[in-house]
Specification:
Largest sheet: none
Protein name: Leucine-rich repeat-containing N-terminal plant-type domain-containing protein
Organism: Nymphaea colorata (pocket water lily)
Distance between the termini: 15 Å
Strand content: under 5%
Structural class: mainly alpha
Order of helices and strands: HH
Amino acid sequence: NLAANQLTGPLPNLTAMKSLNYV
């Protein structure tokens, strides 16, 4: 997840974190 975050950027990171929270 961290590696993907670095590749995508801060915005996708927020969406990923929220998706994890929803799951």
